[in-house]
Amino acid sequence: MLAVKAVWQYYIPTQDVLRLLELFRRMINDAIRIALAYDATTLRRVSLLAYNELAPYDSPSYFKLCAISRAAGILAARKKSIRRGFITRTVYAFRQQLVSCYGFKIENGYLHIPVSRGKHFSIPLTSHTLEIISQPGIKVRFFTLTRNRLSLCIARDTPRIECRSTIGVDRNLRNLTVGNDTQTHQYDLSKCVRIAKTTVLIVASFTRNDDRIRTAIASMYGQRRTSRTGHLLHNATKTIFAVAVQRRTAIVLENIEGIRSLYRRGNGQGRKYRGRMNGWS
Fold first, then answer.
1. Shared domain check, 169 and 139
2. Which of 136, 170, 175, 205 reaches 20 to 30 Å from 149, CA-CA?
3. Alpha-carbon radius of gyration of the chain
4. pLDDT digits (tens, 9 = 90+) for 33-89
């Protein structure tokens, strides 16, 4: 079984890299425009239609292929939304980025990326990134660049584990309960509820009559809330998986599909109660 994850770090871009990021975004949007004009959604069809149209762009050819692949993924997501009955707007790539599985090389602690013909850009990798990708069996599949972040997608073959028993996971508002017929363990997650409540009170206290400023500050507090609660959830789930691997037990999750519909407006519950239930981690 192949396990896939990502490791990321910050980096300092150059003008050539910023130009390439913008060029890649424009190639994605051109591929999307061409595909929509011909009602094409599959990768093969989009490639046949868009590859020659991207010839004027001063970019390595494999970046054009990756831009077409990215455009096909966006169109596939749009097609899925339409099939489910959701209203979709005209799709386009907004964020500057570069995604590629070709042309890069990791050597002597640097990631070497071609930015134009005969010209490369080298990104020094941090000690954490080098430690992760230098582990036995790790393969770097592709990289993703934004304006200030580098993300490496890594894969490794994981051994198959023969499970001896099963454990169930019950997720509640303030705790996470794991166990079976023989033993049960409960993880306290009440701090996540307190963090969410504090963030809501802080955002509600804003009085500045400027939606743009209020949105920016609220987004900052929202990201802070997500980071803090994510850290707590990560520690709990990491412990559960470590114990499960050690004891060779399979994890059974409960089906919570449709749980959001239980706390909608008009169900007879108060605003605070609905906000607390819909905002749980």
1. no
2. 136
3. 23
4. 999 999 888 999 999 999 999 989 988 888 999 999 999 999 999 998 888 888 888
Non-local CB neighbours of 166 within 8 Å, separated by 6+ positions: 180, 249, 250, 251, 252
- Domain final residue pick, 159, 193, 228: 159
Dihedral sign from CA coordinates of 200, 206, 207, 208 = negative
Give the pLDDT score at 259.
74
Q: In 3-state terms, what secondary structure has residue 138?
A: coil
Helix 15-37 and helix 61-84: axis angle, to 10°? 50
Read off the DSSP letter of residue 109: T
Q: Which of 249, 240, 280 has the alpha carbon at shortest distance from 262?
A: 280
Partnered with residue 171 across adjacent β-strands are 176
Which residues span the domain enclosing 153? 1-159
Judgement on whether residues 68 and 137 belong to the same structural domain of the protein: yes
pLDDT of 281 reads 62
Q: What percent of the chain has pLDDT over 70?
A: 99
In angstroms, rounded to a whole number, what is the distance separating the alpha carbons of residues 193 and 173?
8
- 117 and 235 within one domain: no
- Helices within the chain (DSSP H only): 15-37, 43-50, 61-84, 127-133, 190-204, 211-247, 271-278
Taking phi over 0 as left and psi of -120 to 50 as alpha, with beta for the rest, 118 belongs to left
* Mean pLDDT, rounded, of the chain: 88
Residue range 209-237: mean pLDDT, rounded: 91
* CA-to-CA separations, 128 to 12, 85, 132, 228, in angstroms, rounded: 17, 44, 6, 21
Total domains in the fold of the chain: 2
Q: Output the pLDDT for position 272.
A: 77
| Residue 262: count of CB within 10 angstroms of its CB | 12
Please give the Cα distance from 209 to 65 (Å, whole number): 47
Domain boundary among 108, 129, 159: 159
With a pLDDT cut of 90, the percent of the chain lying above it is 51
Let me know whether 147 and 212 are in one domain: no
